[in-house]
């Protein structure tokens, strides 16, 4: 039995770990909104260049209008709505709790795929999702942002709703992408083309937000800072270009619920690099949570 989609999903989680680390550095130096506009614009240029090299044209080919609409909707839900909720939740409840709610993405993927695509999961796959999400949740819940601030269970309702929205955006967006790609001619470059269409929606949405609330001065400052641009380049290449393209390929080859669950391993994979790069302490609960998550992943392959 082939597990290409599942293996790709794990690779995506590893790739997004690099994205998160690079994006953290760049966002701190130039601001999250400026970073989002830059990564959407740059990813469009890179994807257009790659398509031009491989197909002779910088524009996606073989996409009916209905597919383009689904992919634009995916970009609006996944990039704009999901990321906006995630970044806003960080302000209210912190990144640790915000990432905890992102573990809801697989559940939203499975539910959306059941409603729109009729995908069903066996009991073992459902058990794998539950175990993996539990391990990820335990891992992220135990993290401390600075070692000085403890987790308080009394969090504002708005922060909870934003966190749920972030998980919903990620989970629903990946299924909408699968729906759009199912209407296209199946080629090896389809995930790259689909990513480009999604990035168009992302750029439009974030550009509007930047026009309303962004800081051109911070963007210009970041563009002229070598460390900021190095981190931003890493986030752009591993995120909207490689990571998202591979994630769309993964959902072509595996059920959306399973693929989304495996991609949600990023909070586990990021523990040790964060310890090495930023000196963040790793607790026993995080190690136990990692083991539980890995056990859940193993259920998909048994």
Distance between the termini: 10 Å
Described by its quaternary structure, the protein is single chain
Mean pLDDT: 83
**What's the SSE pattern?**
HHHHHHHHHHHHH
Overall shape: globular
**Share in β-strands:** under 5%
- Unreliable sequence segments: 144-153
Query: How many separate structural domains?
Result: 1
- Rounded to an integer in angstroms, the radius of gyration calculated over CA atoms is 18 Å
Structural class: mainly alpha
Q: How many β-strand stretches?
A: 0
- How helical, in percent, are the residues? over 70%
Q: Could you describe the largest sheet, including whether it forms a barrel? A: none
Number of helices: 13
Explain how this protein is built.
There is one protein chain. This protein is mainly α and 302 residues long. It has one domain (4-299). Helices cover 80% and strands 0% of the residues. The protein is built from 13 helices and no strands. The protein has helices at 4-30, 32-55, 65-102, 105-116, 123-141, 157-182, 190-213, 216-223, 226-253, 256-263, 266-269, 271-278, 284-299. Helix 2 packs across helix 9, helix 4 (105-116) crosses helix 6 and helix 5 (123-141) packs parallel to helix 10 (256-263). The longest helix is centred in the first third of the chain and has 38 residues, at 65-102. It is globular, with a radius of gyration of 18 Å. It starts with a helix and ends with a helix. The model is unreliable at 144-153 (pLDDT under 50).
């Amino acid at each position: 039995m082939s597990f290409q989609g599942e293996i790709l999903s794990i690779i995506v989680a590893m790739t997004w770990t690099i994205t998160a680390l690079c994006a953290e550095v760049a966002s701190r130096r130039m601001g999250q909104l400026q970073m989002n506009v830059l990564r959407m614009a740059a990813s469009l240029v890179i994807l257009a260049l790659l398509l031009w090299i491989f197909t002779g044209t910088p524009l996606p080919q073989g996409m009916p209008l209905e597919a383009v609409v689904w992919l634009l909707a995916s970009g609006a839900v996944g990039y704009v709505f999901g990321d906006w909720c995630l970044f806003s939740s960080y302000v209210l409840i912190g990144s640790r709790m915000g990432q905890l709610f992102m573990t809801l993405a697989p559940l939203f993927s499975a539910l959306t795929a059941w409603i729109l695509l009729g995908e069903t999961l066996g009991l073992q796959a459902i058990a794998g999702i539950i175990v993996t999400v539990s391990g990820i949740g335990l891992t992220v819940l135990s993290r401390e942002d600075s070692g000085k601030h403890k987790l308080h269970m009394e969090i504002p309702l708005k922060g909870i709703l934003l966190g749920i929205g972030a998980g919903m955006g990620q989970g629903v967006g990946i299924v909408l992408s699968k729906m759009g790609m199912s209407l296209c001619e199946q080629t090896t470059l389809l995930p790259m083309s689909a990513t480009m269409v999604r990035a168009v929606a992302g750029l439009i949405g974030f550009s509007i937000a930047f026009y309303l609330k962004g800081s051109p001065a911070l963007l210009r400052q970041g563009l002229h800072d070598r460390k900021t641009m190095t981190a931003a380049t890493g986030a752009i290449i591993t995120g909207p270009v490689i990571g998202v393209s591979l994630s769309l390929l993964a959902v072509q080859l595996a059920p959306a619920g399973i693929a989304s669950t495996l991609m949600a391993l990023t909070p586990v994979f990021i523990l040790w690099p964060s310890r090495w790069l930023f000196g963040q302490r790793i607790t026993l609960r995080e190690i136990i949570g990692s083991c539980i998550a890995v056990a859940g992943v193993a259920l998909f392959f048994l």
